[in-house]
Design goal:
The protein has about 130 residues and is of the alpha+beta class. It has one domain. Helix content is about 45%, strand content about 15%. The protein is built from three helices and three strands, in the order αααβββ. The chain has a three-stranded antiparallel β-sheet with strand order 1-2-3, covered by helices on one side. The radius of gyration is 27 Å and the shape is rod-shaped. About 20% of the residues are buried.
Length: about 130
């Protein structure tokens, strides 16, 4: 009986040591999940900025914001979109806006290409009522 108690006493803390060995793997898996969530969020924000900028570029209203301002206003503060194509397209041509967003890194060795989203919005020709 005494020998059984001595063996049990030596096993104390074994689970804690096994958990400490497994903890780095859990940390990497958690950070990878967080990184993938940030990638998805950045892609969604780039699409939102592209659509908002394209919508503003095709609007003929005088009080409407310019293309780049509308695109930046449509996204979160930590996203810094690079908006291109705001000056293009005249007359009845469709406007094509491209937005590029850098993806922040959570895991240092895991690098991503920037997210690029494009939105095409047709210009509506002026009607007789507008003239």
């Amino acid at each position: 009986m005494r020998e059984h108690l001595r063996t049990r006493a030596r096993d104390r803390g074994q689970a804690a040591i096994e958990y400490l060995g497994f903890l780095p793997l859990l940390l990497v898996v958690g950070l990878a999940g967080l990184q993938l969530g940030i990638v998805a969020y950045a892609a969604q924000q780039a699409g939102t900025a592209a659509r908002a900028a394209a919508r503003a570029a095709t609007t003929d209203e005088e009080d409407a914001p310019d293309c780049e301002t509308a695109g930046r206003a449509a996204v979160s503060g930590w996203v810094d979109p690079e908006i291109g194509g705001c000056g293009g397209g005249t007359g009845d041509e469709a406007v094509v806006i491209t937005v590029r967003v850098e993806i922040p890194r959570v895991i240092p060795f895991w690098d991503f290409e920037p997210v690029v989203k494009t939105a095409t919005m047709p210009r509506t020709p002026p009607t007789e009522d507008d003239e």
